[in-house]
Amino acid sequence: MIKAIIKNDLPSCIDIFHRGYETVAIEFGLTEENCPDRGRASLPFEKLESDFENDVMMFGFFVENNVVGYLGIKALDNGNIGLNDIIVLPDYRGNGYGQALLDFCKAKAKELGAKKVRLGMIDDNIKLKKWYEANGFVNIRLHRFEGSPVTTGWMECTL
User: Fold this and answer.
1) Is residue 106 within 8 Å of residue 83, measured between CB atoms?
2) 6 vs 64: CA distance, rounded Å
3) Rounded to whole angstroms, how far apart are CA atoms 52 and 48?
4) Rg for the chain (alpha carbons), in Å?
């Protein structure tokens, strides 16, 4: 079940960031030196709390009252929606929770009047990139930051 994150859920959410993104950080060699917050695998709690209190709409995928997936979206200046994060804990992957969160994101974006959903990701993550493409996203830009072991890609989906 997907529902809005409340402040008391934030400790569970930061755990999802750390455990969910850790697999990506390891796979792609992300360190504090070559990627801020190791690609969000070591995101400080204060940053998540600040996002919660400011401009990020947060939703969780709950299984038996436990948050096992996270979705963070925000309105962009151009009227589109930015998909900041979509994460599922490693033990819960492969159950369709990520798909449910992405479908929820698109529906929420339409509800808010957006025409597109945009995201940034590790373009080298072929499996994830193909998943986004199968869900209507297309690459709009690529960039390799100095010192980074990966290429960053930006994708968008027209609603």
Assistant:
1) no
2) 16
3) 6
4) 15
**Whole-Å CA distances, 152 to 94, 142, 156:** 24, 6, 14
The per-residue pLDDT for 36 is: 84
CA gap 57, 97 in Å, rounded: 18
Residue appearing with tokens 């297309």: 138
Give mean pLDDT, residues 34-46.
90
Confidence of residue 39 (pLDDT cuts 50, 70, 90): confident
Q: Give 62-88 pLDDT, tens digit per residue.
A: 999 999 999 999 999 888 999 999 999
Q: Is 94 helix (H, G, I), strand (E, B) or coil?
A: coil
CB 57 within 8 A of CB 73: yes
Sheet holding 2-4, edge to edge: 2-4, 57-63, 66-75, 81-88, 116-122, 152-158, 138-143
Choose among 37, 49, 38: nearest CA to 12.
49
Q: Find where tokens 């479908």 sit.
A: 103
Residue entry with tokens 């690529």: 142
Tell me the whole-structure pTM to 2 decimals: 0.94
